[in-house]
Amino acid sequence: MHQFTSVSHLIALGTTALLVAVLVPLARFRPGAWVRVVCWALAVALVGNELAYQLVQAHWGTWSVVDSLPLFVCDVAAFIGAIALVWPRGILIEITWFWALAGTLQGMLTPDHVIAFPSYDWVEYYGDHAGVILAAGLLVVGLRHHPRAGAALRVSAVTVLFFALVGVVDAGTGGNYDYLRVPSPGSLLTLIGPWPWYILSAAGVGVVSILVLDLPFWPERRRLTRRASLEAASGG
What we know:
The chain is mainly alpha-helical. The protein has helices spanning 7-29, 33-60, 73-86, 90-109, 120-142, 151-173, 197-214, 218-235. The protein is built from 8 helices and no strands. Helix 3 packs across helix 5.
């Protein structure tokens, strides 16, 4: 059966949807000390999953600088999301939100290899992706840490810089981190042209995705700006 309609894939998607559908609304409408506990637990799980993957590969003798470094967007988003969960700061929250929904979600919907359930690979891959998506939902929707004005531009700049650095690593190691040399089979990258044009196309899609994900927060920013202007006028 095709991996995107396999039972293993559907279990992962269903589990993720259930966690988000339950925990995010509860965090928003029934806040309490439990939310802090969940955030810490998720942060530990995200970091632990990434570190365990490195140790498991070393134990199996499959670790390689070519493809084992935690340099994929989802890996870095896991670390950033973990930090944001326990130390919520603007740029960390913004990166988690945009990378999770513009990148990690796509990776979860279209994995780059067949993943069977149950297996360590299944737990590691989907645990990473589901955890990042849940972290973004908890931070922005559940805890209402909304991206600030200019967030789309900031995260776009950070993303370009990140991919430039990964490109240097790819060139030096012969790796294919973030698929900057060869698109992932079955991913959306295979639909938008050959190398290097698919990178430019993907950048365009990424920018549009970030702008769309930023749209829900525009009305709130306008209200805050209008209120600040009225308060300034009244004070004057």
